[in-house]
Amino acid sequence: QVQLVESGGRLVQAGGSLRLSCAASGRTFSSNNMGWFRQAPGKEREFVAVISWSGVSTRYADSVKGRFTISRDNAQNTVYLQMNGLKPEDTAVYYCAAGGWDTDPSGYAYWGQGTQVTVSS
């Protein structure tokens, strides 16, 4: 069992930066791939990034490649999403997820409650 709590979301101007954090509880954190997804109002939840359990491998959605960076600290049971060059279209609730590698949300077993990111133009 893995419990996830996101933090760091807030209102930011376009072009700004934010770092989201996801704190995990449970002994199996370091053996789980960890992902970030987002969901805007009226839209489906979409893949943002994923990092392997070791931190060696990462994948990104084309829409965030070059702007967002996913990382993890297994000693702190935390995964991060550094977001630079934010755009209004990045506005969404951002969710942390554990246990998958796929871009499909159904491939992940555990989810956090989400944190709101709002980018003003």
Task: Produce the secondary structure layout.
Elements (H helix, E strand, L loop, with lengths): L2 E5 L3 E3 L4 E8 L8 E6 L6 E6 L6 E3 L7 E6 L4 E6 L8 E7 L11 E2 L3 E6 L1
Parallel strand pairs: 2-11
Antiparallel strand pairs: 1-3, 3-8, 4-5, 4-9, 5-6, 7-8, 9-10, 9-11
Features:
mainly beta, single chain, globular, seven-stranded mixed β-sheet, 0% helix, 121 residues
What does this molecule look like?
The chain has 121 residues and is mainly β. 0% of the residues lie in helices and 48% in strands. The chain contains no helices and eleven strands. A hairpin with a 6-residue loop joins strand 4 and strand 5. The mean pLDDT is 95.
Computed Rg: 13 Å
Compute the number of strand runs: 11
Q: Low-confidence spans: pLDDT under 50, at least 5 residues? A: none
Distance between the termini: 40 Å
Q: Number of helix segments?
A: 0
Report the mean per-residue pLDDT as an integer: 95
- Structural class computed from helices and strand pairing: mainly beta
Order of helices and strands: EEEEEEEEEEE
Oligomerization state? single chain
Proportion of β residues? over 45%
Percentage of residues in helical conformation: under 10%
| Main sheet attributes: strand count, strand direction, barrel closure | 7 strands, mixed
